[in-house]
Amino acid sequence: MTIHKIQAYRASLLHFTDDPLHNPDGTHRHEDGLLIVNDGLVQAAGDYQQLKSTLPADVVIEHFPGKIITPGFIDTHIHYPQTDIIASPAPGLLPWLEQYTFPAERQFENPLHAREVADFFLDELVRCGTTTAMVYCTVHPESVDAFFEASTARNLRMVAGKVLMDRNCPEFLRDTAEDGIRDSETLIKKWHKHGRQLYAITPRFAPTSSPAQMQLAGELARAYPDTFIQTHVAENQDECAWARSLFPEARSYLDIYDRYGLMRERAMFAHCIWLNDEDRARMAATRSAVALCPTSNLFLGSGLFDFQRAEAQNVPLSLATDVGGGTSFSMLQTMNAAYKVARMGGTYLPATRMFYLATLGGARSMQLEGCIGNFVAGAEADFNVLDPQATPLLKRRTASCDSLEELLFALALLGDDRSIAATYAAGKRVSGMKVPSEASIF
Ligand code: GUN
Ligand code: ZN
Predict the structure, then answer these.
(1) What are the angstrom distances between the C-alpha of 216 and each of 134, 203, 262, 263, 354?
(2) Ligand 1 pocket mutation pick from 94, 101, 327 by most atoms within 8 angstroms of CB
(3) Where are the domains of the chain?
């Protein structure tokens, strides 16, 4: 028997080649679709009837009747060391960091703890259909090794980095400007582009990095221009005032990062709630991206992201959970919160746009279009099998949906981890049940 590197999956298919906000032709839906994967990469995606004849006769097709295959979700901002403190109550960001976050992060000096949490975290992500994330580790280099080892074991495309933090935090979580950068460079050499792993230079946020550390982080980002950068900005008004008082020469909180050369392609800024028009113009001009974290912003009472201004100013947008400030690993639950935040700001977020933001929008924000985020030929075959009948209520609601928009809207508002029947990374199942193939049904 021939062993094929080719696999084929039949279901309804949904993916994007452009932002539905600007181009309705960029939304692709094949009611009875076929996804053909060759050696972990997408070979073709389209109508089953058209594509089936291109398959070698003995390729067994996995069939998911009534289900929808989408690209794996992309969560552009999440903290793996905060897994165990999700849903910890506090009156706002700064007390939450002091009371829960910093003590939890201290434990990641122990590599065994770090690996155990990384394994759980990645299993939970893929169970929710997320195949790529931009991930904060802790200040400890061992926490980065543990994370990338766990991600490599699952062959996931992950972006992560060591937190840089040399002031305004407990002594037990503090690096120094020089050591933090030296350790980051060692980790870049070890992990960046090692298999599917990518490195992000990770100053936690301006208040916890000295000017010297910010300066060195900017120099590191220039020395390694294809690495990522991730940080927090303009999340909470107390935090904004604190950042401004620490860097009084800056035009705004965002401008602190700009001055140190930390705004560029592949730079991801979480939250961006309290930006002004000039800040948004800099985001657009430098192709820096927003990681929009609605469950976290609501939970911590940080504020409501301004969709209207961000869209008007062409700011690159992506969607993120921000666990443990965020309250769910599910990008469907995150869409639910994003929708309501948009409504509170007087705008409307169509479901196709929410699915775009959770897939190709994330990939574009990370300059990874063509690699992940959709089903163009040659893309890495990371995908989800969504079940619109996963719960009694979803089944009842989706039975009467008569447009794609309505169906996706029901999934976004009512869906969660239960709606993800299976998840595949580079063509290999990493979560969910194997279904009977067409051939073995008979
Ligand atoms: N700002 C600085 N650190 C953090 C963090 O861990 N979570 C959130 N939500 N905001 C931050
Ligand atoms: Zn965060």
Answers:
(1) 21, 10, 10, 14, 37
(2) 101
(3) 6-72+375-439, 73-329
User: Are 77 and 134 contacting, i.e. CB atoms less than 8 angstroms apart?
Assistant: yes
> Would the CB of 93 count as within 6 Å of ligand 1?
yes
Q: How many helices (H) and strands (E) does the chain have?
A: 18, 16
Taking CB atoms within 8 Å and a gap of at least 24, the contacts of 98-106 are 100/324, 101/324, 102/169, 102/170, 102/173, 104/324, 105/81, 105/138, 105/139, 105/163, 105/173, 106/170, 106/172, 106/173
pLDDT at 433: 74
Fold for 73-329, please state it.
Answer: TIM Barrel (3.20.20)
Is the distance from the beta carbon of residue 232 to the nearest atom of ligand 1 less than 6 Å?
Answer: yes
Rounded CA separation 295/293 (Å): 6
| Regions of the chain with pLDDT less than 70 | 1-4, 434-442
Structure tokens at 415: 């869906």
* DSSP track, 96-121: HIIIIIHHHHHGGGSHHHHHHHHHHH
β-sheet bridge partners, residue 74:
132
CATH value of 6-72+375-439 in 2.30.40.10, 3.40.50.720, 2.60.120.920, 1.20.1730.10: 2.30.40.10
Q: Side chain identity at 321, as an amino acid letter?
A: T
Atom of ligand 1 nearest to the CA of 136: 6
How wide is the angle at C-alpha 275 spanned by C-alphas 270 and 277, nearest 5°? 130
What's the whole-model pTM score?
A: 0.97
